[in-house]
Amino acid sequence: MPLTGEEPMNKLLKRIIITLVALVLLTPVGILLPIFVDAGDAWGEWSARTVAKLIGYVPQGLAKYEGIWKAPLAGYTTGGHDTSIVRQSFQYLISGVIGAALALIVAYIVSKMIIRNGK
Predict the structure, then answer these.
(1) How far is CA 9 from the centre of its chain?
(2) DSSP structure string for 24-86
(3) Alpha-carbon distance 36 to 41, whole Å?
(4) Domain locations in the chain as residue ranges
(5) Higher pLDDT, 2 or 6
(6) How many CB atoms lie within 10 A of CB 28?
(7) pLDDT single digits (tens) 27-54
(8) Cβ proximity of 112 and 104 under 8 Å
(9) How many angstroms separate the Cα of 105 from the Cα of each of 16, 21, 75, 86, 111?
């Protein structure tokens, strides 16, 4: 039985969704791992000051663009003063879900625009 054009796309979409769900579930690792290895900040989420301490200088691009983007959920928090690991992990999960949902929505809209323009 020949495959229609939608069957491979459905399999791909299913794989993408499974991968995104797995990545979302792994988001608390970003807050837990630095605690267990005494790394301070989450890996790769360093300020220019922290980078300067780590490598001895601030790369030109980082210095130039450090303040250009302000995250909607800065620090992956929704506010409040409870800094327990459970709350921080939960907030990382919520941030991951929001980010993954936004990425899926944008990808879906762009793919529909490409398909429509391709016909």
Answers:
(1) 24
(2) HHTTTHHHHHHHHTT-SSPTT---HHHHHHHHSS--HHHHHHTTS---TTGGG--S-S---HH
(3) 12
(4) 8-43+75-118
(5) 6
(6) 19
(7) 777 777 777 777 667 667 778 888 898 8
(8) no
(9) 13, 15, 23, 29, 10
Q: How many CB atoms lie within 10 A of CB 24?
A: 19
Q: What would the two tokens of residue 71 be? A: 């995250």
Per the CB < 8 A criterion, the answer to whether 71 and 99 are in contact is no
Per the model's pLDDT, the better-predicted residue between 88 and 57 turns out to be: 57
Most confident of 7-21, 36-50, 62-76, 81-95: 7-21
Is the model's pTM score more than 0.70? no
| Residue positions counted in the chain | 119
